Request: fold
Amino acid sequence: MASPPLTNTIRKLRFEHGEMTQQALADRVGVTRQTINAIELNKYSPSLEVAFRIASVFGAKLEDVFTYDGDEQA
Amino acid sequence: MSFREKCAWISFVLLVLLAIGMAMPGFLSGIDGLHYFLALLLGFALLQVLLRVIIAWQAPKDARTPKDEREHLIDLRATRIGFYALVAGVLLSMLLVHLHGNPWGGLHSMMLAVLIAWAIKFAGEIVYYRRGR
Reply:
């Protein structure tokens, strides 16, 4: 099965925010740790709401966290 | 493995065991068969509760966390697969009743179809959890 056409910088952003754990990010976003892991590994594309919440935790813009690669894959 | 994936494994394994129990000869024949069926159902329910309590006790925070959007999506997708299996099983059971003229056997096969559909639903959940979506 093809990966969703979204890539992200969550791993890098977590590192830059004091090695924030997946669980800590999950608690702040309001999802499970497994969901953060799936998003980070590009296995799952989050809803807009969750994407904005993740960006908000890092104080970043949505486009700094998520990149759409759909056109490149096509 | 997350709490909900463990729950899906528990339900899947117990449903398979229940289906095997239902496939035993003499099932639902006479009063002994009925007692056997009720004992199976009671054992199934008790084991479900007991095993879920044990895994919730091991990871209480995980168990208290409400389902998020990915888990809801997994649930919906697995339920859809289970629904198709249920429809196919019920139609097959109706066909068997028409072919063999045995309503008791049809009832039995419909119950089996319900169990198999549930097992397929939980198997789907496990596969989706393993995949991550």
User: Anything to note?
Assistant: Chain B has five helices and no strands. The interface with chain A takes residues 2, 62, 65, 68-71, 129, 131-133 of chain B (CB under 8 Å). Residues 69-100 of chain B form the longest helix (32 residues). The mean pLDDT of chain B is 88.
